[in-house]
Amino acid sequence: MSVEIALCAARVRYGPLEALHGLDLPVPAGTVTVLLGRNGSGRTTVLRALAGTVRLSAGRVLWRGADATRLPAHERARRGLCFVPDLQAVYAGLTVAENLALTSPGARPPYAELVPLLHRTAGTLSGGERRMLALSRALRLPHHARVVLVDEPSLGLAPPVAARTYRALSALATEGGAALVLAEQRVPDGLPPGTLVHELRRGSLAFSGEPAELG
């Protein structure tokens, strides 16, 4: 499998605290990669470093072998990277329809639950509804999407909706060929064969392998 994007000896600092300690993390194309860890383990920082929303204090980001460390976040997005953070992932002052139109104008929302809410302002939605709206950014991506990063996809979702979400996200990798990275506290059920798991502890890798190998 080919590596789509990677962190190489990556270090990230927030003031005096170092969140990533020289992390090496390859992310293959056409594969689901799960980042496991408790709060503060560095999962979200890994996603932000790949997306370009935080700077590395040392190390590099390689995208298909080319150095993308200094490539700003908006340029990474133009080249096919989508980042869905866990918080502040929608524009609260815009309607549901206007939020969706920022990704692909005119297309139906990927969640039937959002259809009757199209004229509602996003800031008035429940937590689960806002999460579905945020995830729509990834699920409505055009075919050129190459890297999809999602922080806690099921946050606030009912179990049946979460299961549908994982199936749809997994298809971006298995059918669309994207490098999909999910930051989670546990391995979700129903992920496809070949899923890779990396467990982070205090900014360092504690485990890398397949879900069945986790102790």
Helical residues, percent: 10-25%
Q: How much β-strand is present in the residues?
A: 25-35%
Low-confidence stretches: none
Tally of strands = 10
Average of per-residue pLDDT values? 94
The number of helical elements comes to: 5
The helix-and-strand class reads alpha/beta
Spatially, the strands of the biggest sheet line up as: 6-7-8-3-9-10
Shape type: globular
**Pattern of helices and strands:** EEEHEEHEHHEHEEE
Rounded to an integer, what's the Rg over CA atoms? 17 Å
Distance between the termini: 25 Å
Major sheet attributes: 6 strands, mixed
What is the secondary structure topology, with strand pairs?
Layout: E1 3-14, E2 17-28, E3 31-36, H1 43-51, E4 58-63, E5 66-67, H2 73-78, E6 81-84, H3 96-101, H4 127-139, E7 147-151, H5 159-174, E8 179-184, E9 196-201, E10 204-209
Parallel strand pairs: 3-8, 3-9, 6-7, 7-8
Antiparallel strand pairs: 1-2, 1-4, 4-5, 9-10
Defining key terms:
215 residues, alpha/beta, 6-stranded mixed β-sheet, 5 helices
